[in-house]
Write a structure and sequence with these properties.
Elements: H1 3-10, H2 16-27, H3 37-50, E1 60-67, H4 83-92, H5 97-105, E2 108-115, E3 126-127, H6 145-164, E4 169-175, H7 179-191, H8 195-198, H9 207-223, H10 231-238, H11 241-255, E5 260-262, H12 265-277, E6 286-287, H13 295-303, H14 319-337
Helix pairs in contact: 1-11, 2-3, 3-14, 5-14, 6-10, 6-11, 7-9, 7-10, 7-12, 7-13, 11-12, 12-13
């Protein structure tokens, strides 16, 4: 059995029994029922993911996967491809936005080269390079199916290494000029949404550039014949190496029952790939925020998921997920630090909610 199939077969549904116990506990906390809203939902979800009545998300880890995209040759990005390597150097030096936000929450940042176009040499860079960027999927498949598998397995390896180090939560992010184009193509292919509804301006295209981007993706999807393709074939034909790797991170972490906080548009596309490979993963998904990129909404509707935050972010790197991490921490803390009405000597029945007496 291949590593991917082995992981897919090992992913089990959330633990309903533990979730029921935690739900009952949450309703007995010193507050009106449901008063903490989605934080309560998050606490119950984390219990189901970890199979623990008192889950913890200590020592979060950020995994940033990087890869380049041949589709940039069609003028779909306002920035040159060389920026990918420059930003990797910035991540490693600790000067990027994700480094700042990771420091705030006490998270380390692992940067992974899955498919950067060219060599990037640094001792702290994790090199899992499958190839020097994808092909231009306007003219040919972005990668072979075997390369897509290798990229997924690269993400799986990195995730397992992070988990083995004792990290209890993973934040996923990415870097790669042109990756909003690949993400838009994947989302349109999997959700059947209209291309014009899922394509934004990426890193700063003009209105004219956005229209060109829409036209390029529409024609590319027809040329690649994605409508009759399997999940792996769609990923190989129009996807990205870093997107595939992030899907691998999600799969590996889910199999290990480790919560993953999904970042913005590109990371959500990776979550969609993971879902198409393993629908069970849907209930594990924690989407950090709603990006300015419009295509993310199609995934929310398709998977019936809601983001935790809406801050008009569009940076990537895992920044939105890092900002959302304190909400997970808060959700676990209410389970361990809040008193119940029984602790106060008050009997409270679930079917008879009372006002908070405090």
């Amino acid at each position: 059995m291949s590593p991917i199939n082995e992981i897919l077969s090992s992913i089990k549904p959330l633990d309903d029994q533990v979730m029921k116990l935690v739900s009952d506990h949450v309703d007995q906390l010193t507050k009106p029922i449901g008063a903490l809203g989605r934080i309560e939902e998050l606490a119950i979800q984390l219990a189901g993911i970890t199979r623990k009545e008192r889950p913890t998300v200590k020592s979060p880890a950020v995994i940033v996967c990087a890869g380049d995209h041949g589709i940039v040759n069609e003028g779909v990005s306002a920035y040159p491809q060389e920026l990918t390597k420059l930003m990797i150097d910035n991540f490693i030096k600790g000067r990027a936005a994700i480094n700042v936000l990771a420091n705030q929450i006490g998270a380390n940042v692992t940067v992974v080269d899955v498919g950067v176009n060219g060599e990037v040499n640094h001792p702290s860079l994790v090199v899992k390079k499958v190839k020097n960027g994808t092909n231009n999927f306007y003219n040919e498949d972005a990668m072979s199916e075997q390369e897509a598998i290798e990229a997924i397995e690269a993400g799986m390896d990195v995730a397992q290494n992070v988990i083995d180090q004792g990290h209890e939560a993973i934040i996923i992010g990415e870097m790669g000029i042109g990756n909003t184009t690949a993400s838009s193509a994947l989302i349109a292919a999997f959700t059947n949404a209209d291309v014009q509804d899922v394509v934004g301006r990426g890193t700063g295209l003009t209105e004219e550039g956005q229209l060109q981007k829409i036209a390029i993706i529409k024609e590319a999807l027809e040329r690649r014949n994605v409508s009759e393709a399997s999940t792996l074939q769609v990923l190989a034909r129009v996807g990205g190496l870093e997107i595939a790797a992030l899907a691998g991170v999600l799969l590996q972490a889910t199999a290990n029952r480790i919560p993953v906080i999904v970042d913005g548009f590109i990371s959500t596309a990776a979550a969609l790939v993971a879902y198409e490979l393993c629908p069970t993963i849907k209930d594990y998904l924690i989407i950090s925020h709603q990006s300015v990129e419009p295509g993310q909404k199609a995934v929310f509707e398709y998977l019936d998921k809601k983001p935790l935050l809406s801050l008009d972010l569009r940076l990537g790197e895992g920044t939105g997920a890092a900002l959302a991490y304190p909400l997970l921490d808060a959700a676990t803390r209410i389970l361990t630090e809040m008193a119940t009405f029984a602790d106060l000597g008050i009997e409270k029945k679930k079917e008879e909610p009372i006002e908070n007496p405090l």
